[in-house]
Hints:
The complex is a heterodimer of chains A (357) and B (377). Chain A has helices at residues 2-6, 24-36, 50-57, 60-64, 68-76, 97-119, 133-138, 143-153, 161-180, 264-271, 298-301; strands at 14-20, 40-46, 79-84, 124-129, 184-189, 192-197, 204-206, 211-212, 216-219, 227-231, 236-238, 241-243, 247-251, 254-259, 280-286, 307-313, 328-334, 340-343, 346-350, 353-354. The relative contact order of chain A is 0.13. Chain A is an alpha+beta fold. In chain B, the strands form four sheets. In chain B, strands 14-13-10-6-5-18-19-20 form an eight-stranded antiparallel sheet, covered by helices on one side. Chain B folds into two domains: 4-171, 3-Layer(aba) Sandwich (Thermophilic metalloprotease-like); 176-376, no CATH class. The chains are: A alpha+beta (357), B alpha+beta (377). The A-B interface holds A 14, 21, 24, 27-28, 31-32, 35-36, 38, 40-43, 45-50, 53-54, 57-59, 61-62, 65, 67-69, 72-73, 76-77 and B 23, 25, 32, 35, 38-39, 42-43, 46-47, 49, 51, 53-54, 56-61, 64-65, 68-70, 73, 76, 78-80, 83-84, 87.
Amino acid sequence: xxVDYSVAxxxxxxxxxxxxxxxxxxxxxxxxxxxxxxAHPLPRIGIEGMLENLMLEGSDAQLDWVNPxxxxxxxxxxxxxxxxxxxxxxxxxxxxxxxxxxLHRALEPQRNRYLERAANGELRWVLTLFPTQAAxxxxxxxxxxFEDFVYAAGFLDRDDPVAEWKRFGERLDGVEAFLSGIxxxxxxxxxxxxxxxxxxxxxxxxxxxxxxPDGEIFTxxxxxxxxxxxxxxxxxxxxGREIDDVRLRFEGGEVVEATAARGEDLLREMxxxxxxxxxxxxxxxxxxxxxxxxxxxxLFDEKIGGTVHLALGTAYPETGSSNRSALHWxxxxxxxxxxxxxxxxELAYRDGAFVVL
Amino acid sequence: MNDPRLARLATLLVxxxxxxxxxxxxxxxxxxxxxxxxxxxxxxxxxxxxxAYANVALEGLAExxxxxxxxxxxxxxxxxxxxxxxxLDAEITIWSEANTKSFSRADxxxxxxxxxxxxxxxxxxxxxxxxxxxxxxxxxxxTNAHAQDAEMSLLEYEDFVFRACHVDGDQDPLAHWRAxxxxxxxxxAEFADAREVRIVGPDTxxxxxxxxxxxxxxxxxxxxxxxxxxxxPVETETEGExxxxxxxxxxxREVEDIRLRFEGGRVVDADARSGADYLxxxxxxxxxxxxxxxxxxxxxxxxxxxxxxxLFDEKIGGTVHLALGSGFDDCGSKNESALHWxxxxxxxxxxxxxxxxELVWRAGRxxxxxxxxxxxx
Lengths: 357, 377
């Protein structure tokens, strides 16, 4: 799926495999498939603990340093398969938020550049997760249970996963067609009444190409349009640290009030990273019904069927949004129990499903 | 795993072998098995203001490339890889294998294509080192695979490796290696004017011409552990015979009890108790394969046994080694060959070495400490 469908590796292409050593079994299979496609696999294997060392002990100059070899990768490769495989999802808990923010700022041009190349059709990338004990533990599951969950979420338990994802894509096309004609969405739920301007923006259905598993439809809202309040039902997670019960109030597209039951300091620091971090770079509906449980891993959580999420910070340029930031932080709001979304004043979505389609 | 010896080894590599300075970029090449040493190196590098990152070869990928890649894929070297090497100030290679026999059953031709691609990157590094643009050091992180080859438990092998690097005790490793550098430099200087080296031992009486050749000390800046003094003999002057009591290893294959006879610099007779055919095949590699490219004294007396790993074996204190094949330009060698095969001759039990007729070495030891270089003037 990752090599043939998501990045569609072709003869002679250079494809990086970016993964920690814990993902070795999956890295080997991806490497094999890339060879079978006639392309050149370029493994970029990380060692658990190096990022922690850097963040705990690194000087500003070291946090700001961007490896030019990796910058070259971003400029030249035809595809990237990025695999997460956490050994301990809390290994960065002790790190200063300002150091994390600094490292993120340093990597921002690189991130923006690969998104730009992807938007121009010059590079294909996919992000996935190899199930580990740490990820299973965060999801409150045993490793075998979590493996079943991960593979079901990717439709890998079905006879023909590629066909399933193509079918899913057709369903997304229907949602996309509907949302494309809408200029304002209003989200109503407990302690939530948020208006998001989406007129003229492009909706993109995620069908397993850039994330795996996948299943969402997103856009970049009009930068100055977001108004009102939203309360996020799931904890917001940033590098292993949880912020509970986040509530945001927006005026003219900017966060003007941010509170949380726990972790409010971190929340404020994140929002203050830079100018763009106060604005919404993404608004999306989670549409994968095989993803039902909250796992503390955004790759899955943002696709939970029946939720919406918004991201503070940088936008995907292909949506038409110009918001840029070192931050891209997804926050999820569950609408399965009584939530509603109005599209240009008409009820379009209730209790976690579209009612107009 | 938080073995304090790893932290000391890391400090030795960063501060002594490579002398890394603030703002420099160092890449650590290794496999995932070396993670504890990679992290220890990174911690020291961070303290020094150095930018350190890892280049990790995941176990199994090279085997997959050899067995499943096309020829074009096996020979492919990305331009990205060349440019990456061009940007480095220094590089550390940590040999650390989970299985030293991973390639024994691979198709030799396919394996050769992958090696050739890797070699083109290594050559690029050596060109830059030669121009003084970067530094490099190679070391080893103990694994069960290396311990098994050395016929030790992992714990015993760790003790052996860290003792050989002098990072195992209370002594300051940097002070040890600085002293070793002085001693080995002085020893190399003593041989600068020698015209002939004669090795005498059981079934051995070999004369090597070394007039005009440069002797090099090797004290931990390219290898850790280290401890040898070497040169490249005059190509046409090697005469006599030598018997090697330790097995010689080439790409995982062993040849035991080798006997060689030289005339006019060339091997004219070669025999071995086992692997004689392989020995003759290697000697027929090309024209230069029958000529010596290196003669060296092993002078690390913490390395007291043979372990099937040339990083250690060539430095066993009390041995000498000869290499058949290519010599070193900076020693004055003109011998060229695709082969460079180190064969170790154990002189610890009995054995004598004469320099221009004077006995200088007996039973694995020089008779006198080298005179400090300043007094020789």
